[in-house]
Design brief:
Length: 546
């Protein structure tokens, strides 16, 4: 069965894959430039909330130009798929570097922090908050410089979107769902800086509630880092956002002053040289060194960049017009999804050839904002594939318990599995068939990212895997108890009907009516899964504080 591919590119190997998407290495056929193409999973393509978030990522990247951030080349959407084409960074993730080489010396860690802050500063200047800064999303290239990637859950500054992020790097205010702010990115960058210096995260916990409490209340562990950078750690990890530098650019000024005083004016050159030496020890992990497809610990992450300098791609990158073009592509995508199939006199085959793209045409230099166009490209007939999966070895690469750090966000993105508030919407309607599909067998049910978000509120992520696309009913039930290991008293339930895919992810919120030190969530399905479903229990924040 064929899989939809972006026209105009030749794909060579897969860089990473996961339930929500995959990233492939490809070559732009006209210019010969290597790129990374991030595809939205086939199983999610029919769900408008996921498509909307995928478009939003492209829109944010289209308005962001920075030498410290992986750049958007184009966003492409057709009735058969959606993809983000980005520059390819020939580097390794900071997570891999720390796992293979251990803690960094202060100068190298400062270089990582400065480069990351400069990338965040460029985002903050256009009012974009990353919200998911962590070692997985920093790529270090052979010259010792770095790039910031994966804006999958980024939002405009001030946006209220609920709890989101990766728990070990989330600022205290992120745990309460406060509006997104640059100060939260500063906190995450400092937490990563701390990990670079010590080899471990600032705070640890046996569950999300415990981890949240430590981020909110535990003393800042500044004494564990060299004295010369302790004040930077104290400032960046301050509990109240107003006590941190309000923007990344301000923190860069403080960093440069502290580093120059402690390590001399050539600290950055030495630090970058040490990073380059560490990357040189891992040559086979660079994308340019891979000759055969392989999965990586970057689960459908935007590991998307190119070597420094525009090279041959300069004539076809959209640059600043990208944001305007991406916005127009959203409209084109809507027209393709809802209009092309029903245009008078248009056959399904002809509708399947329509393609919305955000990029300027290859070989044409953009000289200011240009109007996007919808062009026709020959394409294969619509196809469907099972969503890809991967068994990550990186301890940070999974968002589910037992597979790495759980995510506390509420939007599933093609990145480390992150989640966002509310249940996913129903799949887009499909055309009628002679007989309805039979109910599938439920292969797996999971409950993850169960998190207390307020005195009486919680959120959880439910995953269901089936062996067919027929209808399945998913029931999420809530319980309270004063004892560990028992579900306790029922506190309400929600039921969702799903069909049209083999994997479903729901982020579900609940307000508890009963009291109890323990909260539990259980997910069951109809047809029933072989193991009867899945459940998870947490000790609430108010009881832990006693």
């Amino acid at each position: 069965m064929s899989v939809w591919a972006v026209p105009g590119y030749t794909e060579s190997l897969e860089l990473g894959s996961g339930a929500s998407g995959r990233v492939v290495l490809a070559v732009h056929e006209e210019s010969g430039v290597q790129v990374a193409v991030k595809y939205l999973s086939e199983s999610l393509r029919t769900r408008q909330d996921f498509v909307h978030e995928f478009r939003a990522e492209a829109r944010l990247l289209g308005g962001l130009e920075s030498p410290y951030v992986a750049e958007l080349y184009e966003y492409v959407e057709s009735p058969d798929g959606a993809a983000i084409v980005m520059e390819l960074v020939d580097g390794v993730s900071l997570r891999t570097l720390l796992a293979r080489q251990g803690p960094l010396d202060p100068e190298a860690a400062l270089v990582i922090l400065k480069g990351s802050l400069l990338g965040l500063a460029d985002a903050h200047r256009v009012d974009v908050v990353h919200r998911d800064y962590k070692p997985e999303n920093v790529l270090v290239v052979p010259d010792g410089s770095s790039k910031l990637v994966d804006f999958g859950i980024a939002v405009d500054s001030g946006t209220s979107v609920g709890v989101a992020g990766t728990p070990s790097y989330m600022a205290p205010e992120q745990w309460t769902g406060a509006p997104a702010s640059p100060a939260a990115d500063v906190y995450a960058a400092t937490a990563t800086f701390f990990e670079c210096l010590t080899g471990h995260k600032p705070y640890a916990g046996d569950n999300l509630a415990e981890l949240a409490l430590r981020h909110v209340d535990a003393p800042i562990p500044a004494d564990e880092v060299p004295e010369a950078v302790r004040e930077l750690v104290r400032r960046g990890l301050a509990k109240a956002p107003e006590e941190r530098p309000t923007h990344a650019a301000a923190f860069v000024t403080e960093l440069e002053a502290a580093a120059g005083t402690a390590y001399g004016q050539d600290w950055e050159e030495r630090g970058r040289g040490r990073l380059a030496a560490l990357v040189a020890l891992l040559p086979l992990l660079l994308p340019s060194a891979r000759s055969t497809p392989e999965s990586t610990t970057d689960i459908a992450r935007t590991v998307l960049s190119r070597p420094p300098g525009h090279g041959g791609a300069g004539s076809w990158l959209p640059g600043r017009p990208g944001m305007l073009v991406s916005a127009a592509a959203v409209l084109l995508g809507i027209l393709l999804t809802y209009g092309a199939h029903h245009a008078p006199g248009t056959t399904p085959e002809e509708a399947g050839q329509a393609l919305a793209t955000t990029s300027a045409q290859p070989g044409v230099t953009a000289q200011g904002p240009t109007a996007p166009t919808a062009s026709a490209h020959p394409s294969s007939s619509p196809t469907s594939t099972a969503s890809p999966s991967v068994s990550p070895s990186d301890p940070e690469s999974s968002a589910t318990p037992g597979g790495g750090e759980p995510s506390a966000s509420v939007t599933t993105t093609p990145s480390e599995e992150t989640t966002s508030g509310g249940a996913t919407s129903d799949p887009a309607p499909t055309s009628a068939s002679p007989s309805p599909p039979s109910a599938p067998a439920v292969k797996d049910v999971t409950v993850s990212a169960f998190l207390q978000t307020g005195p009486s509120t919680a959120t959880a992520t439910v995953g269901v895997t089936t062996d067919g696309t027929g209808p399945v009913s998913i029931t999420v039930s809530w319980f309270t108890s004063n004892a560990a290991g028992t579900l306790g008293t029922p506190d309400g339930s929600q039921t969702f009907q799903r069909s049209g895919a083999t994997q479903y992810t729901l982020a579900v919120d609940h307000t508890f009516q009963n009291s109890g030190c323990y909260w539990a969530v259980q997910s069951t399905t109809t047809p029933a899964s072989a193991d009867g479903g899945a459940s998870q229990q947490i000790l609430t924040r108010q009881c832990e504080l006693r």
